[in-house]
Design a protein that fits this description.
The chain is an alpha+beta fold. The chain is built from 3 helices and 5 strands. The protein has a 5-stranded mixed beta sheet, covered by helices on one side. The N and C termini lie far apart (about 25 Å). About 20% of the residues are buried.
Length: about 100
């Protein structure tokens, strides 16, 4: 089963690398990643789709993200229409569009 986490992060590649490295080190399988620049200057909206394994739940991933500096407003993304957009793909999409 695939789950999506939404987090507001500081804009830039450093926050993206920090988040992905942390989840990779903890052995989460990242299947989708979308980073969009927000209207609020200096922040981006990051949506991460992970494959939920039996021993690594979405709550564990969110707990790991809360420990990272420059990561704010972490929540499970539940909008079914938008989850389909970021469901399993290995492409990194960095678009410069306003957060909704």
């Amino acid at each position: 089963m695939y789950k999506t986490i939404s987090a507001k992060v500081e804009h830039g590649i450093e926050a993206l690398v920090r988040v992905t490295n942390t989840l990779r080190r903890k052995e989460f399988k990242i299947t989708g990643l979308v980073m969009e620049e927000c209207e609020i200057g200096g922040y981006s909206d990051l949506k991460i789709t992970i494959e939920e394994c039996s021993n690594l739940g979405i709550e564990q991933a969110m707990m790991q993200l809360r420990k990272i500096i420059n990561v704010y407003e972490i929540k499970e993304f539940k909008d079914e229409n938008q989850i389909k957009e970021v469901e399993p793909s290995l492409d990194l999409v960095a678009s410069v569009s306003a957060c909704k």
